[in-house]
Amino acid sequence: MLLDIHNLVQRFGTTTVLDGLALQTGDVRALVLVGPSGGGKSTLLRILAGLDVPVAGSVAFDGEQLPRDEPALREYRRTVGTVFQAYNLFPHLTALENLLMPLIHVHGLSQSEARARVREPLERFGLADHAHKRPAELSGGQKQRIAILRALVVQPKRLFLDEPTSALDPEMTAEVLEMIGELKELGTQFVLVTHEMGFARRAADEVAFVGDGRVLAHGPPAEIIDRSDVPRVRSFFARILS
Amino acid sequence: MPRWLAHTIVVILFAALIALAFSRVDYAWNWAGVWEYRQKFLQGFGVTVALSLASLVASTLIGIVAAVLLGSKNVMLEAVGRVYVELIRGTPLLVQLLLGFYVVASAVGLENRYVVGVLVLALFSGAYMAEIFRGGLAAIPQTQRDSARAIGLTPWQSLRLVILPQAVRLVLPAVAGQFVSLIKDSSLLSVIAVSEFTLAAQEVNSFTYSTLESYLPLAAGYLLLTLPLSALSRLLERRYRYEM
Q: Is residue A170 assigned to a domain?
């Protein structure tokens, strides 16, 4: 995917969170956004995912501009998938019902068509045995993996993942990252916000450092994480990687 | 020990204690006198049931409307909701009944004390329902709404498939409690001479001077209404629990 962002501005009340952010990527499969808390990564992701409308600026994926009106944005959201840090799944439904819901209620599949579609992904990622459980009965890692599956089964153009492992312990974090890595091998495009630098180094095609509402550095992962010549970026990684 | 057995034993012990207390008091029981008025009791009970049901439904609707107002981004609408809730929750039901019937209803020309009674009761309970509903909605994490939007659900679909199912489960205990309170509060309608259960007991007492024999059945009658409601609520809570 080619991502083209120009002069993106986002404000909440009187606070400016994105301050004329610009980014032009190459044709990447995996774009990873990193940076300090409050720097604007999640805000940016929400705009890219079609959840929020920026105050100003433009975003285009593969040449297609993101709409600004809600009905069109809703149509856009139906073509992509988003996974948040926690509380993705609907707790009153089983894992399976969570997966079926977008297929049946948004994409118009019948019950049997929907069930057929989710069978293979559930088996492939080892979650078939857990399908009849409610989220409360699942581990954090299982919940996040089901949430990723729910985003996947609608066959989205790309996935947006906002710190999907930040609420998980190391073992479950590895579980989820493994799945995301596997998805990348299978050809899924995604934009990922994460603090997992090891994974970013391995899996990202390009990394963008978002801080103070702007992209402060952008390029191949090794260049940004290990060898950045932007002082702010350098000191960030020096501190967290030590 | 099974729970029902423990409950039964405690109730029997309690009843035995009461019976013991009364056996020591030199009280001339006059159940026969009160039994003559059983028709009156039954009619009063029926009126209480009808009033409670009507107020239950009305207060739930009012509560929903008020909850929507309270959550509105429109300053004026939110103000209407907030003033309503604060006024009603800050004054006694008795005061609202007296003002409602003798002042407001007279001014408006509404003479039917039953209708006024139901309205006042519904407005009273509705204010508490509004806060219960607000609390329930607020307890649902924002990510739930985000996830619903992210999937591409319309606002109406989000409400129907995601928000309401969770909100109903969250507020069920509190709403059941409010229903029980409503049934008991309906006894206050006796002050505007609505011929419900409590007024019936008061009248029988004034005819027979048999206070305990008039008021004990009254208590039993209310328990007959409130206990099944509590039990039903606990049953529904257990069935629909999903443990966030």
A: yes
* A47 and A119 part of one domain: no
8 Å CB contact of A105 and B244:
no
The length of chain A, given as a count of residues: 242
Q: Which domain holds residue A122?
A: 92-155
Choose the closest CB to A136 out of B143, B147, B243: B243
| Number of structural domains in chain A | 2
ipTM: 0.91
- B37-239 under CATH 1.10.3720.10, yes or no: yes
Q: pLDDT tens digits, residue range B222-243?
A: 999 999 999 998 888 888 777 6
Q: Which of B143, B153, B166 sits opposite A84 (nearest CB)?
A: B143
Judge whether A3 lies within some domain: no
Residue A86 included in any domain: no
Long-range interactions of A47-51: CB distance < 8 A, separation 24+? A47/A8, A47/A10, A47/A18, A48/A3, A48/A160, A48/A191, A49/A77, A49/A80, A49/A82, A49/A160, A49/B150, A50/A74, A50/A76, A50/A77, A50/A80, A51/A77, A51/A82, A51/B146, A51/B149, A51/B150
Q: In terms of pTM, does the model score above 0.80?
A: yes
